[in-house]
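haha ok so turns out i had the wrong file open the whole time. this is the CORRECT one, sorry everyone. sequence first:
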Amino acid sequence: MEYFVAPHSIVRRIWGTADTVLFVFAGAAAEFALNKAVDWLYFTGRLPADPLGRLFSTVDYARRIVFADRAGAERAIDTIAAIHAAVEAKRGRTIPDWAYRDVLFMLIAYSMRAFEMLERPLTAPEREEIVEVFGRVGQRMGIPGLPRSYAAWQAARAQHLAEDLAPSHHTTDLYRQYRRHLGAPRYWLLRGVQGMVVPPLVRAMLGLSKGTWLQPALSLYRDTKQFALSQWAKNALLPTEYQGRIRALDNEPVALAPTGCPYSGTRTHHAK
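then structure:
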């Protein structure tokens, strides 16, 4: 069977572990709030209404791509493209190419950062592989101007951070929704994790600390990942109703059921 992502790929290891997936989306949740195209995530109202549900919908799509065979992964990518096209038609505007690239760049950046925080430094070939895999996702979606190497991605990522981020009233509102849905203790834990994983510019724009107060807990967490303490720590990040979905992140998906998308919140059963 031909896979979109090779069975022994570092990308599968990253996206097959709840620890790293949660750290990836802690970082992405911070940077999304600053992106100049965040208004697209507000257009349907789905993201502010249910930010945690949208997070898991995005995770579901990413994992469908990473763990499916090539045909299944391509169907999932085509579904994402179709959903975005429908939102564009409804709004009467086109999502800019740079916004699509920004999302891919975030997934690349935080996949690397989360893995290195929780596991070990990545090798040069592993970095190239992560860029290549997400580049193929973007190519399937028809996104132009994608970098083809880690060095090219680094340059494009730096340009994105300099040009495409700015605090707005959406930033303030999205963080208000994070706090409302998480509760105060989990919200401050989220901000601590975000401060550890995001780039300095993002940290400064959001007024995040460096999360140094979490470093001792992170060290203990790495040393006890195989024990019950690790699951307790993962459960501490999100409310009780999501604990089953958190546990499921440690397993390869067994079914590629249709799911939602952060832009639409719809359930799509086929690609366009």
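The chain is about 70% helix and 0% strand.
again sry for the mixup
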